[in-house]
Structures are given as C-alpha cells and as structure tokens.
Amino acid sequence: MQPSDDAERLRGILPRIPNEPGVYRFLGAEGEVLYVGKAKELRKRVSSYFRRSGTPHGRTPEMLAQARDIEWVVTASDGEALLLEDNFIKEARPPYNLRLRDDKSYPFIEITLRDEWPRVRFFRGRHLPGNLYFGPYSSARKVREVTELIGRIFPYRKCKGAKPGRPSGSPCLQYFIKRSLAPCDDRVAHEEYMEVVHQAIDFLRGRLGDVERGIEREMAAAAEAQEFEKAALLRDRLAAVRHVHERQAARIEGGEAFDVIGLHQGEPGANVQVFRVRDGAVVDRQAFYVENADRRDPAEVLEEFLLEFYWDGSTIPPEVVAPLVESDGVAALLAARRGAKVTVRAAKRGPKRRLLELAQHNAELAAQAEVERLARHSTARIEALESLRDGLGLEGLPLRIECYDISNLGEQHVVGSMVVFEGGVAKRAHYRKFALRDVQGQDDFAMMNQVLRRRFERHANAGGDYDESFATLPDLVVVDGGKGQLSAAQAALREVDVSVDMVSLAKQREEVFVPGRREPLPLPADDPGSLLLQRIRDEAHRFAVTYHRQQRDADLRKASMFDELPQVGPVRRRRILEHFGSPERFIAASREELERVPGLPGKVAREIYAHLHKAG
C-alpha cells in the first residue's frame, strides 16, 4: 500500500469521528502510538490534519506518513480530555508529542518520608508513593547545589539507607561538625528530628519566612530552658536562612507565592523559563528545552508543558502566571493535584506583568543561544566529515560510520561491539553487540573476522529477520586495531561479497591504516576527522567493555548460585554441569530431570528443586 493510499484510508475514517470533546491518537503500522491530541470538537480537529491547502507545521507530515489508523475517546468535557491526553502521553511516550529534552532523566530532590528518619537526597527515577519530590530541575548540578546548601543549614541525617547509622554504631563525622543530629545514636528525639525535616521542606517550597519564624520560636524556647549550646546552633541556622532570604534581589511586595512561565518558540523546538517567586522574592529560575514544539500553537505547547512539569512535582503554587488566554482546564487539573485552588492567568499590568515579560525575554535569548549552539555543532560535524573524506580519499561524505571492537579476558566472555554514528552523531538505537562463538585461543583477527562476517551476512539476509541497523550499509567501516585487524575485516567482507570503504585505528599512536598501504596515513593528531575517528573508536570500546562485564557478572551470579544449593559440593556441581551442559538448562530442569543426574541421590535432587523454586 502506498502512502497516498494510507492517507485516503485515514480520510475515510473522518466521517465516523464524533464532533464532541475527546482525545485522538494516530497509530503506526504496528499499532504503536505516534501522537496524542485533545480537542473540543474531535472531527473538526482531526480533519485539519488532512487539509490540502496550507503547509502542515513541524513534523506533522512525517507523522502522517507513518500513520495507519486513528483512534479516539469521547470525554464529558474539555478538562477531562486534557487529563486523559496527559495520561496517554505519559503511558505511551509518543515520538511526535511535545517532550522535555531527556524527560525521563530530569533530576528531583526526594524527601524519604516513608523512612522513620527521613533523608533529603538527589533522585532520578520512578517516584514512590509517600515520599515527597521537588522538581524537576533543569540540571543535576542545580540539584546538588541545593542539596548541599540545605545540608549545611539543616542537620538531618546524611547517611544512606532506610535506617540511620554505620555498622560500628558510633556517630559519623557529620554529627561532630554539627550537620547531623545523629538519630543513629539516640541523641535526638523523633519529634525534634521531624521538625528539622519539615523546616527543610518549607525551605524547598520557598517559605523562608515560615522557616525563620519557626527557628526563632525554637531558639527562644532553648534560651528560656537555658540550653545555650542548642540556642547558639539555632542562631547560626537562622542566620544562614536569613542570608539566603536576603540574597534575593528581585522582590515583590505582599509576600506572595507564584510561578512565572515564559515561552519562546523557534526551530527546532522551544525554550521555557520558569521563575519561582516565594515570599515576594524570585528564589529560583530554571530553563527547559522542549522538543517537537516548532510552529505548534503556543497555548497547546504551554498546556502540555505545565502538566508535564507540575504533575510529578509537589510544589504547585496557588498562582501560575503564563501567557494563556483560556486556562480553566489546566487550572482545574492543577488544583485537583494540589488539593487547593490554583489560578493560571496572563498578568496584564504591574510587577507580575514585568516578570512575565522578563521570563519571555529570557526564553527568547535562550532559544537563540540553542539555535546558535546547534549551528556551531552542525558546522563542526560537517567539517570533521569533510576532513575524513579528504584525508581518506573517499568519494563522498561518510555520513554513516560503523566502528567495531573486541573485548575479552583470556578465552572467557569474548564479545564484539558495533556502534553507529550518522552525520557525526551517535545513533544508539543502531548499536549492536555480538557474543562470539567457536574462537580458539586469543585470536583477535579471527574474532574481528567473525563479527564483520556476521554483521554483513545479516545485511545480505535483511529480507528475513529485518533489522534496520543491519539492513543499512555504512559509508565507512572503522575497526579497532592495526593492519592485522584491518586484513581480517577485509577478508570477512570478501567472504560475504560486500564492498565498503574501510580503515583501522591503532590505539597506541592513533595511527590510521587503509587497505593497500603499508604505512599509516599522515593525518594530524588534532585534525577534526582524526578526532572524530578517535571518539567513535572510544565509544565502540566502551560499548564492548560494558557488554563484556555484563556477561562476566551474569556468570559470577550463576556460579554463586551453586554455592547456595543444599548438599552440593565440587563433585556434584561438576556432575550437574556435565549432565545439563549449562547453568541455564539446569535452572530450567524439572524435578524428574534432576533426579536423572548420575550420582545425584533422588532426595538431594528433590531438595535442590525445592530450593531453586523457593528462591525463584
């Protein structure tokens, strides 16, 4: 079926779509979700994708070319559609929806309230119910700066683990430098410790005035009770909080708490600036780059960003100042999440309007800087590829480069790696790894030959078990090593009747060898093409070593499993492995199969089976 036929078939679906509020999804050939959207009138919105007049924005033509079906869900209201759209996006992670760059790995600050003695720590990953999270932050450095600051001010425990303390049982250095209350040694009551944790939480929420007043009350109580050492520590803590509070230069009268969101769109995405105002002071500014936002409706981009940014965090303020005209749906969802009223509006005058303009201007400057950065990187990549073309005497630019490396320790766990760079950028989805078989001794040449032969045999048979990485021929093959590895790779390509340009790169002197030439090419060490080759070679080495370690660690885990088996010593272990041939087959064996192992009593076999299945 041709793409035009698919487009006509999709148009044929349009009359069946109701003109009610809801969510629609474009699906690919395998049923995967390509894009999720919401609409007040579903048929009208989906039909707009197929208008013959006008130019579709951004990556819409690319998405429509891949689409094979449309699904929709009718909702009771536009606000319900907004929430359902957000749920679908978070579940499916569609490639054509707006997303924060590296959105899966944005860091947070986690308060482990599930622990009896909570910690404050840097965190990435899935959020646990019961714990408190602040973020997302735009960089790991920002999180570490904040955690280091509050760690100096608030003496919560700094040790790892759900329970406080060290194996020795004695307090750590943090206690003696007054940065921990040492709950591990029963030196602090739980109520007093939790007061410190709640002060840290208020500090992270920007309620610096509340923190100051709380410390002042504690200090007065300690002085009245003549606990002068404690009062002195609280005095120092109060001075630190006031120092942070007074450092904020941009202030707004009234002690309000709100966020200001600025947006600027450009190619290829958009930049969003978030100004956090607490107790009348701008306490933080964060910048986020948003993908798939080029030429999309700004209101749509902002709605998606607000839900993405606030939904997993805990610090939703009572007011969000953003350039949105209609924002009731987003405000209602954030209010439900916060458990209190939230206003989302565009400020029209006064200090908030000036802050909004400042955020917009910062977003514009950041977006321009991103475009310039991408242009510089693109120019540098083209220069490196042109340098490679000229230095190696290639007919065209080596847009796709594949590099191969071998990793082994003796004859154990011999593996190979294939990394791919396209346009001078790593294409990790096309990386492949090889577990090498039937290689006698440490024959690096035979190992390299096997890897190249297997890779290009897969290209010859691409019509069967299709793999996009193997189906695509490279413009240049790079092998890690010298003339020997290069000869082995050439032999492998001759065996499978494939012809591509090829070089080898020797580690010791970073020498580049090409077929038919005894001496290395005289490429300068600081040449952009040489540096690109070295970067690709280092990436292939890293990928191979990582796979080698995974294989080795897996075998070590299997070996340790035998140590835990009841009544199994070295002799019985050898008989088990000789009978089954591998740990995998032994683990998968039934009880009857275990009982048939020569020299293994039936009672012992049954105990082993029960132990394996009890341990999972």
Please describe what this structure looks like.
- The protein has 616 residues and is an alpha+beta fold.
- Strands 13, 14, 15, 16, 17, 18 and 19 form a seven-stranded mixed sheet that branches.
- It has 20 helices and 19 strands.
- Among the domains are: 95 residues, GIY-YIG endonuclease; 112 residues, Nucleotidyltransferase, domain 5 (2-Layer Sandwich); 143 residues, UvrC, RNAse H endonuclease domain (Nucleotidyltransferase, domain 5, 2-Layer Sandwich), CATH 3.30.420.340; 52 residues, Orthogonal Bundle (DNA polymerase, domain 1).
- Helices cover 46% and strands 17% of the residues.
- Helix 4 crosses helix 11, helix 10 runs parallel beside helix 11 and helix 13 runs parallel beside helix 15.
- The protein starts with a helix and ends with a helix.
- About 1% of the residues have low confidence.
- The longest helix is centred in the middle third of the chain and has 43 residues.
- A hairpin with a 2-residue loop joins strand 14 and strand 15.
Rounded to an integer in angstroms, the radius of gyration calculated over CA atoms is 31 Å
| CATH homolog superfamily of the domain at 400-542 | UvrC, RNAse H endonuclease domain
Q: Structural class, from helix and strand content?
A: alpha+beta
If you average the pLDDT, what whole number results?
Answer: 81
- In what range is the share of β-strand residues? 15-25%
For the record, give the distance between the C-alpha atoms at the N and C termini, rounded to a whole number: 48 Å
What is the fold-level CATH name, i.e. the topology of the domain at 400-542?
Answer: Nucleotidyltransferase, domain 5
In total, the number of strands is 19
Tell me the CATH architecture of the domain at 400-542. Answer: 2-Layer Sandwich
Q: Low-confidence stretches at least 5 residues in length (pLDDT < 50)?
A: 247-253
> What's the number of helices?
20
The percent of residues in helical segments reads: 40-55%
CATH top level assignment of the domain at 400-542: Alpha Beta
What gross morphology would you assign? globular
Described by strand count, sense and barrel closure, the largest sheet is:
7 strands, mixed
